[in-house]
Design brief:
Blueprint (H helix, E strand, L loop, with lengths): L1 H34 L5 H5 L3 H20 L6 H39 L4 H32 L2 H5 L1 H6 L1 H11 L1 H16 L7 E4 L2 E8 L3 E6 L4 E5 L2 H4 L3 E2 L7 E9 L5 H13 L4 E13 L4 E9 L2 H22 L43
Antiparallel strand pairs: 1-2, 1-5, 2-3, 3-4, 6-8, 7-8
Helix pairs in contact: 1-3, 3-4, 4-5, 5-9, 11-12
């Protein structure tokens, strides 16, 4: 009877004690979260309840398993497995706690500076993300090394591994040259403030928003919901446009190719009225000017400002569409025309020419239209 009750008491007691302590800890964290709703720390710490319970259970079983006298022939192997579980769950718990503390610090910082300095907030977010990846990788490597050192064969091979570390380092450096360059580029991006999560960029002709930055690659979400992934070393070796660098305000440009008789002054007044009706215009500035001419048309350019890249796109398309609609309704003569009349050659009187079958040709055809770039 004792051989049956002893293992049940040891193993069952360890599991039951783990569940009770885990439930009590989670209850305390929930009450702390209700009392201190201004900080997300307590709710974030609850995400670590699974590794926390694993640490408790593994530690209790590891310390009391010898008294259970269960599977005595495999006592060493079971103890070794419990040690590995304890190390792995402890590393998992450390990562969760570190993530909760860092995320809480960033949230407080973002709430205090979101309105005053959004660019700085995005920069800190990028740095925090990369730092957490480094911390997780470091803890994972240390935990894996600790697990390997629990095996006697690996401890015995430690001296030979250290002796050959120089040669292995050279080989690994040559083999992972590209990976290492991307990792250093990731640190350079994080702390050099070249590009941040949430920035609007134009990279290799692709316009989008930086969605994710890791130590080796960067993901840009384009305007049509595609994800473009590229190595971070691209941003340290090639030029790219960062529309969020500095202040987010931008100036949009719209071009029209119109007839020389287009009412420029009336268009300038109409542009002012259109912008006043457009919520995306920030009211800072606008302008309309003739920037170029050709024998058939003239180029009219409109400038308008907006608070960010999204709004400048909205105001551009709105002004382009509504101005063309106004010209079609009020000033159709201002739209470009293609002259298809026959040329009057020297020595030949002006007038309609006849085709070989005697049918007179039309003098001219006017084709309204506009360049909607």
């Amino acid at each position: 009877m004792e051989n049956i009750l002893r293992p049940l008491i040891v193993v069952g007691g360890s599991v039951l004690l783990t569940l009770v302590i885990g439930w009590a800890t989670d209850l305390l964290l929930r009450r702390a979260d209700e009392r201190h709703g201004e900080t997300p720390l307590w709710d974030l710490l609850r995400r670590g309840r699974i590794p926390y319970q694993l640490v408790l259970c593994a530690a209790l079983l590891r310390g009391s398993y010898d008294k259970a006298r269960l599977l005595g022939d495999h006592r060493a192997g079971i103890g070794h497995i419990l040690t590995l579980v304890l190390i792995g769950s402890a590393a998992w718990l450390v990562i969760r706690i570190a993530a909760a503390v860092v995320e809480t610090s960033y949230t407080r910082y973002a709430h205090s500076r979101a309105r005053r300095d959004p660019a700085r907030v995005r920069r800190v977010r990028t740095q925090v993300t990369l730092i957490m990846r480094v911390v997780a990788a470091t803890v994972g490597v240390v935990a894996a090394a600790a697990m390997l050192l629990t095996f006697p064969a690996f401890r015995a091979a430690g001296a030979s591994l250290l002796a050959s570390a120089g040669i292995l380092g050279i080989v690994a450096g040559v083999a992972a040259q590209s990976t290492l360059s991307n990792m250093f580029a990731g640190f350079q991006i994080a702390f050099g403030d070249m590009v941040r999560i949430g920035d609007t960029v134009v990279v290799d002709g692709q316009w989008g928003t930086v969605e994710e930055i890791t130590l080796t690659y960067l993901t840009v979400r384009t305007w049509d919901e595609r994800r473009v992934t590229m190595p971070v070393s691209y941003f340290t070796s090639k030029p790219f446009e960062n529309w969020s660098r500095g202040t987010p305000e931008m100036t949009g440009v719209v071009f029209w190719h119109l007839d020389h008789s287009a009412p420029v002054e009336a268009m300038r007044d109409k542009l002012r009225d259109l912008l006043r009706e457009c919520p995306a215009w920030d009211g800072r500035a606008y302008d309309l000017s003739v920037t170029d001419t050709t024998p058939n048309t003239m180029e009219v350019r409109a400038l308008m400002t907006a608070k960010d890249a999204d709004d400048v796109w909205t105001v551009r398309v709105a002004v382009r569409e509504r101005m063309i609609d106004w010209l079609v309704r009020e000033h159709p003569y201002a739209l470009p025309r293609v002259n298809t009349a026959n040329a009057n050659l020297p020595g030949r009187p002006p007038g309609p020419r006849s085709s070989p079958d005697g049918t007179p040709n039309r003098r001219a055809v006017e084709t309204p239209g506009a360049d909607r770039r």
